[in-house]
Structure formats: C-alpha cells, structure tokens
UniProtKB/TrEMBL annotation:
<protein>
    <submittedName>
        <fullName>Glycosylasparaginase</fullName>
    </submittedName>
</protein>
<dbReference type="Pfam" id="PF01112">
    <property type="entry name" value="Asparaginase_2"/>
</dbReference>
<feature type="binding site">
    <location>
        <begin position="209"/>
        <end position="212"/>
    </location>
    <ligand>
        <name>substrate</name>
    </ligand>
</feature>
<dbReference type="InterPro" id="IPR006311">
    <property type="entry name" value="TAT_signal"/>
</dbReference>
<feature type="binding site">
    <location>
        <begin position="186"/>
        <end position="189"/>
    </location>
    <ligand>
        <name>substrate</name>
    </ligand>
</feature>
<dbReference type="GO" id="GO:0016811">
    <property type="term" value="F:hydrolase activity, acting on carbon-nitrogen (but not peptide) bonds, in linear amides"/>
</dbReference>
<keyword id="KW-0732">Signal</keyword>
<feature type="active site" description="Nucleophile">
    <location>
        <position position="158"/>
    </location>
</feature>
<dbReference type="InterPro" id="IPR029055">
    <property type="entry name" value="Ntn_hydrolases_N"/>
</dbReference>
<dbReference type="InterPro" id="IPR000246">
    <property type="entry name" value="Peptidase_T2"/>
</dbReference>
<dbReference type="GO" id="GO:0005737">
    <property type="term" value="C:cytoplasm"/>
</dbReference>
<feature type="site" description="Cleavage; by autolysis">
    <location>
        <begin position="157"/>
        <end position="158"/>
    </location>
</feature>
Amino acid sequence: KNELPVVISTWRHGLPANEAAWEILANGGYALDAVEAGVKVSEADPNVTTVGYGAIPDASGKVTLDACIMDEKGRAGSVAYLQHIKHPISVARLVMEKTPHVMLSGKGALQFALENGFGKEKLLTPEMRKRWKEWKKEERQFSPEINIENKRLENHDTISMLALDKEGRLCGACTTSGLAFKMHGRVGDSPIIGAGLFVDGEIGGAAATGTGELVMKTLGSFLVVEFMRNGMSPSDACNAAILRITEKIPDYQEHQVGFIALHKSGETGAASIQPGFEYALKTKNFAGLKEADAWFK
Ligand code: SD4
C-alpha cells in the first residue's frame, strides 16, 4: 500500500506525465487537475507518436483522437473521432463539466471545442505524413502489431493515468490517437467509459492500453474495478481481466492489452497479455517504470 498521493500511468511516456501530475498532487491539488495536466504532456509532445499532436494518422492520413476523463464522484466526459484539437482530454473534461452528456464525437465534438475557445491546429507533422505515405506504399492494410511501441515506436502508446490525491479523491484520464493506420472512422476503447477507463471513487480505478477491440468486447476497465469491488487486489483484478480476454477472445495471442489499476487504499497493480508492458508509478518513495505481470511468460 502507498501513502497518498499516488499516480500511475501507462508506458514510458508516463514518466514525464506523472511528474506534471505530481506537481499538483504534492501541493495538495485535485486529482482531476493532476490527471488532466499529466496526460497533456503526452498530447503536446510530438515525440509521443500515438497521442495528440504528432500522432500517427489513420489509413486516410488523418489524425483522429479519442479521450475520456472520470472523477471521484463517477462523473464522466469523453470525445471520440476528434480532429484538429491538440488537447482532447481538456475537451473531454469540458463535456463532463459543461454538458448534460457524456460523449461527443466527430464534427460535433470539434464544434463544441471551437466554441469553447480551443484553437484548430494541424496535428499531422511532416514526419508522420512521410511515414503514412511509406505505409500506404508498402502495407496498404491495417495490421495490429504487438507492443508496436516497443518494436517501432520507441515505447509510445496510449496514455492512461490514474491519480489519488491527498484527500483520497481518485480520478482518471485516457487519451490516444488509437491504433496506427486504423480504418478511417474507427473508434477504440479509449473514449468508452468502462472500456478504456473506469473510476469508482469508493473502490478504485482502472485503465487500459493495447488493442482496443479486445478491451471493448470485455469492458475491461469496468471489469477490473468490479473485481476490486469483490475484494481482489488491484494486481489480481488486472490479471483476472486479462484471463477473461484469453478465455473469450480467440485470437488474443495476436494482440497486446495492458491494464493498470489503483485501489482507493493507494495499492496499485498491472497486468498484460504479452510481456513488455511497462507502466510509470510515482509515490512519495518511488518514481520509475515497472513491468506488468504478463499472461505469456
Ligand atoms: C486503441 N487502446 O485505440 C487504443 C490504442 C492503444 O496500444 O492503446 N494501443 O485501441
């Protein structure tokens, strides 16, 4: 168990994101502000090629973004298939705070963002445009790759973050450009409450990364939280949700999925299908990367 505050996030790009979140948490700030500020670091960084600005486009060469956020009271906001906005997580937060809805998508989400003062930006960098052109020439087909971030993309992927502040408020955020070269119009797990992220402020939170289709079909993050509700530790709950995927999805061997979880007590856990899923943890006594338990050893 960890003393509060605690912040946990997916992949190596979680390290600088956790630092930004920690600044808020260490000063007694609100976990919701912390997770938003944290994942914004990845959204703004063009070297993180699977989130926000500088992300890999879809098959048609467009950067389309998914994000969601959830607070300790169970309030939620999300955006899907959003283009031209550098910080989809902040739009998701506004959906939560300013509208009677949970999710806005596509043109409507963009319109809402523009009406609320967000600027329209070009998210496709010249480097990613070049990569897309090469991909079009060579592959022309979408194929999910296991730990794509480890093989080709220097450890970058969806960022999901969970934070517990000094007052014990638990919040989460998740933001991504989705799978590289996905079909145009494809939406993954990341903006789906219960799939890419779920928080129950009285129990704990969980978040996912990896092939979103597998997470959506098993409602993975919700499942992890329900396992914790039934008494499992965060680690056991993540492993049990991975087990569910292996039992229910025939071609799970071809994919990577990773879960992180944070219990209300401060205890954390993580699990994945394939080895190689790293997550970043920051507490008073620890700051660094850990590798999740993997189904395949
Ligand atoms: C998605 N879960 O859109 C995201 C992407 C991801 O490893 O995390 N890929 O399916």
